[in-house]
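Q: I'm writing up a methods section and want to include an example of the input and output format. Could you take the sequence below and give the corresponding predicted structure tokens, formatted cleanly so I can copy it straight into the document?
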Amino acid sequence: MSNLERYSRQILFQGIGEDGQRKLLKSRVVVVGAGALGTVIANHLVRSGVGNIRMIDRDLVEMSNLQRQTLFDEEDAILHLPKAVAAQNRLNKINSTVTVEAVIADLNLDNAEELLSGFDVIVDGTDNFMTRFLINDVAVMFETPWVHGAAVSSRGMFAVIKPGVTPCYRCLFPHVPTGTGETCDTVGVLSPLTDIIGSFQAMETIKLLVGAETTSNLEQIDVWDVSSMQMDISQGRNPNCPACAKGQFEFLDRSSGQQVVYTTLCGRDTVQINPRKKSDLDLKKAAEALRKSGRVLGNEFLLRFSPEEDISIVVFKESRVLIHGTNDVTRAKMLYSKYIGN
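A: Here is the clean output for your methods example:
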């Protein structure tokens, strides 16, 4: 069987054909995040014959992931395999003719340019705004198209960002949201939703790779209410956008006010997370959200939240956070992303 025969049903589709398939086989895609969205995206891209895929993730497989993260099984969780490695293992069994690279890393301003440059498309399988703004800065800097996706509870969205053609992510979302946001660990998420959003992201990625027309909308879906909304963003470029209009990449700039400072406190088994841009948190609202995931105590100045036996998270009104029980910055960032959101 020839290499192309494997993709015969895909080649029969007029929008791809043999020329499109050959383009896919030569393409390079980086997927940021190997969670619910990332596993769906990578699964489709590997089966479709995208030649080279890099998967970046900082986390380990847990039992609670198996409800929606489709490349993992119970053995991966028992072995505490890094998600990127577990995904690579499964994808190699699905299609051994493509190259899948597992990168166990926390994507940040120190490594983002190195890890994301040199690819045809970047795909967003992340779960937080800060990483998306970082992806956007790199994508605009290197003029790399990327596919945004997000899913929480029963609601999801996706969009295609083409630097120089469409609005960039910062045009659509000028500011990082403040306060504690909804996350999968505080309000849950439905497995069919992540499958649908991830599948749409994979489809838009394939369109980019073969040179087909992509959606010009910010597409939004609610799988519980069975509703959808399309927002045409084609004319939404901001002439004053710091990123795509002025070339100011603040999320790659350590001196900018957009950065979050992570500090290990000496001798205290604690990591401090301190956003440079302060905000006045609604502690009552934050407490209501966090009680779904653990015990919450507090006063007018702070909340103390205990999501795990060995972890205590203190959230201050001015948005500073202390994570007690670890001096590992990467673990602290995972906990922050899980429970605090933004």
